[in-house]
Amino acid sequence: MENHHHNHREFSFLTSSGDFIRSNNTDPPIKEMNLFSSSPNNNQQEDQDQHVNTGLNLTCASAAVSKLENPENSETELMSTLQIELRKVQEENQNLRNVLEQITKSYSQLQAQLFIALQKQNHVDNMEANHVMESSEQKTMNDASVSDGKQACLSDHIAKDVVECSSSHSSKTFEQDLTHFRKARVSIRARSEAPMISDGCQWRKYGQKMAKGNPCPRAYYRCTMAVGCPVRKQVQRCAEDKTVLITTYEGNHNHPLPQAATAIANTTSAAAAMLLSSSSTSSTLSKDSAPFLSSFPYATISTLSSSQPFPTITLDLTNSHSLAMQENRIPLPLQHPQQLLGVNPFFFSQKLPTMALPLLQQGQRPPNSMVESVSAAISSDPNFTAALAAAISSIIGAQRGGDDNNSNNASVVPAGSPQLPLSCTTFSTN
DNA sequence: CGAGTTTGACCCGCGC
DNA sequence: GCGCGGGTCAAACTCG
Q1: Which positions in strand C are less than 7 Å from the protein's CB atoms?
Q2: CA of A237 vs C1' of C2, distance in Å?
Q3: Is the overall model pTM greater than 0.90, yes or no?
Q4: Which residues of A56-71 are buried (b: 16+ CB within 10 A; e: fewer)?
């Protein structure tokens, strides 16, 4: 029933009063905004426009100043207010840069680890094959020994790299890291009345069990978009709050993904990468060991335990704790929806579900129940979560030199995250 | 009839 | 070795 609300979408941006500027058919669509662009703008007007696009109220507030034509005192006050606001925005921007830096770093580390692990495995396989050959054909062995010798040299070199790269790790912990690399899970909490979320992939239920400590059954699904796709997911309602649906993803897709499934796949990949990055450098997982996660308002970390044998990162989209965080951090009247929703303005400025707009137009201050409704609508909306992920991936893509030539592929993207090869899971809600 | 779901049986790891 | 719990299998069942 509520799905048809999702059929009609439009871009929306915030003014300083909390109003929305909604694009119509005559306005050119704004597809992407880059808060991290370090390249200087040649055109000042362009610069100003970019500030409007961020939805961070800078230019909108300036416009308000010129409109009002206040006396000097008011202007001074407004200027100081704007300066304070600007500082906050710069601070936020810096935080986001730090997050991005960590994600990029994690990606590089994981890519290097994967490469090394694969080469190491190849080395073992080659050694075994060589051993078999030694006991079988003498002549073939003589021929093969030349090429194997080359491979051995290469593998020795790689093995040396392994030692150097994991100098702070024993080989055992390195193997454990590899196990976690394969088994890392991303758990997403979202409020949803639906029994199961649809996330752009096709799933087949293959089991259901009653889990200990939870009256609600846990359902097991496997991806059926391709034969042999190893991706699994578990769906279970939260024992404490049955309106919260917990979806846990594990594994990497071995097939192209529909565009709708790609966006959150990148997000969960990034989350898994962050988790694995922190777990590879620290035996215990905490926000202290992964300080960049403190900037991610949704993320909480599960530590390794007997009940959770694999490292799991939880992306909490239920917003309850985020609300508290935001209210503590920004003791201003709740005039910006992103404050109400506990959403980073960077994410919020991308795109919003149309269904949420009527509730927040004209600078209304929504009542608490409305806040809950809107936050639930947003956290359960596929386009919002998709926009969130798209924002992350676009920034990562830009950081990597804009070499992503797949962006023009309309409906299908290659298997595996283009940014992070580790985990290509998907998520959105009905 | 094929695809998806249900559900009891089974497997496996872990702690005692 | 045994029991427990998580996860998977597969036959039976349902549905379009």
Answers
A1: 4-10
A2: 32
A3: no
A4: bbbbbbbebeeeeeee
